[in-house]
Amino acid sequence: MKLWGGVFLGQTDEAAGLFHSSLPFDKRLYKHDIHGSIAHAQMLGKQGIIPKPDAKAIVNALNIILAEIESGTLVIDETAEDIHSFVEAQLILRIGDAGRRLHTGRSRNDQVALDMRMYVKEEIACVCAGIIDLLESLLSTAKTHTTTIMPGFTHLQKAQPVTLAHHLLAYFHMFKRDYRRLVNCYEGADAMPLGSGALASTTYPLDREFVRKKLGFSRITENSLDAVSDRDFCVEFTSCLSIIMMHLSRFCEELILWSADAFDFVKISDAYATGSSIMPQKKNPDMAELIRGKTGRVYGSLMGLLTMMKGLPMAYNKDMQEDKEAVFDAADTVNSCLSVFCAMFQSLSFNTENMYKSALGGYTNATDAADWLVKKGVAFRDAHEIIGRLVLYAIEKNVPLDKLTLAELKKVSDIFDETVFHAISVEACVNARNVPGGPAESAVLKEIKNSQKFLASVR
Ligand code: ARG
User: Between the CA of residue 203 and those of 16, 72, 99, 400, what are the distances in Å?
Assistant: First the structure.
C-alpha cells in the first residue's frame, strides 16, 4: 500500500520502486518506529486532535504488530516503500479508519529523523558497554604487569624502556577518550524531532514535550527545518566509531608485530588464530588483521555520509535515505570488532622474558646515561654527544652500554665513575621516570587508581 497515491495518474516503474525502497535495510528500525508512533498517537488522543477511542485502538494495534514482528509471526515482506509505510499499512489493514488518523501532524521526514536518533542513542549505549569491557580487561592485565619491562619504541626502533602496564594503559586512555566522545555524541542525538512535520512544523496543537518525555529524550529540537534535515548526529556517531577503529587497528597492528617471530612478545591463543591451507606450520593472527582491515570500512561509512550530506539544500532530500546503511554497518562492525578484540586480548599470553631481553638491547638506556652526565654538571647537548660516541663504540664491540668497562667509559669522558652502571640498568631507567604519567611503578600505580575511579564512575 502506498501512502501518497492521490495526485498520481501513473504507476511507479517496477524497477524504480525497488530502487528507492529502503525497507530491505530500514526494517531494523521497526521497534523505534512503532514506539515513536505509539507516543505520537497517545499525544494526538490526549490533545483531542484525534478521537480518544481511535488513539487507543492505534496504540493497541501497534503493540500487537510489534509483538508479532518480535515473535516472527509477522514477516516484514519488503513490498512497502519503507518501514514507516509498512507499519502504517499494517495498522490500517487491522483497524481501518482509526489507523488512517495516525499520521495527523506528522511526516515521514520527522518520523525518520526520530527513528534514527532513537537507534543511534541505543547503539551508543551498546558500543559504550563494549568499550567498558575492554577498559576493564586492559586495566586488570595492566595491574599484573607494573614491573614487566619492555622496550618502548619510536619510529618502530627501540627507544627507552617502559613497562607492559604503561604500554597497555596508553590504550586504556585512548579508549577512555572514545567513551567520552560517545557520551558527548549521545547528548547531540538526544533531541526529539517530532512536531517538525515535513519541514515547516504543523498547524495542530501537538504537545511535543509529552512525546519527548514518553520517548525518553532530554530535549526537543528547536527548529523544524533543521530537525528534518540534520544528520550531524549520524556523522558524529560514525566519526566516534571511526576513531575507535583507528585505535583498535593500532592495537591490532602491535599484536600482529608482537606475535611475529622477530618480536615474540606475545602469543595469540589458538582460538583467535587460523592456519594456512598449504603451510602446515602457520598460525596467523587473522582476527587482528581483519579488525585492522575493517577500519577502512568504517572510515568508508563516515566518508560516505559526509559526502552524501555535502551541499544538500534545506530541508529533507531523498539522498538522506543513504544514511542508514552507512550508520548500521559502521555500528555493527564496531560492535563485533570490540567484542572479538576484547576476547582475543583476554586470551593473550605475554612472553615477559623476551620483552625484558629485548629492552636490554638497542641501547634503550642511552638517554639515561646522558642524563647521568647532566646530573654531574655536563650540558645536555654535550652529554648527548659523549653518549652517542660511546654507543657507536659499543655497537662496534657488539655489547650493551652497561657491559663496557669503566676504563672504556673514561676514555670518552673522565667524568664517569662506578655509579653510572647502577643508573643505567633498565630497572633504574624505568623507575627514575616517576613523574605523573611516567612508567615508574609508583607513577603507574597512581594512574591505575585514577583509572579504577573512572571505571567505577561509568559502570
Ligand atoms: N525512507 C525514507 C528515508 O529513509 C523516509 C523518509 C521519506 N520521506 C520522503 N519525503 N520521501 O529517508
Answer: 33, 38, 20, 82
24, 74, 100, 303 from 94: Cα distances, Å: 23, 13, 11, 42
Residue 41 confidence class, pLDDT cut points 50, 70, 90: very high
Q: Is it the case that residue 2 has pLDDT exceeding 80?
A: no
Q: Which of 116, 118, 86, 120 is nearest to 229 (CA)?
A: 116
Ligand 1 centre to CA of 35 (Å) is 18
321 alpha carbon to ligand 1 midpoint, in Å? 6
Residue 94 makes CB contacts below 8 A (sequence gap 6+) with: 61, 64, 65
Ligand 1 atom closest to 324 (CA): 4
Q: Give the atom of ligand 1 at the shortest distance from the alpha carbon of 81.
A: 1
Residue among 140, 269, 276, 347 flagged as catalytic: 276
Q: What is the pTM of this model?
A: 0.95
The binding-site residues of ligand 1, defined as CB within 6 angstroms of any ligand atom, are 22, 26, 82, 108-109, 112, 316, 318, 320-321
Q: What percent of the chain has pLDDT over 70?
A: 100
| Cα 150 from Cα 158, distance rounded (Å) | 10
Q: Give, using CA atoms, the residue closest to atom 2 of ligand 1.
A: 321
Cell numbers given for 434 = 616517576
pLDDT tens digits for 67-123?
Answer: 999 999 999 987 899 999 999 999 999 999 999 999 999 999 999 999 999 999 999
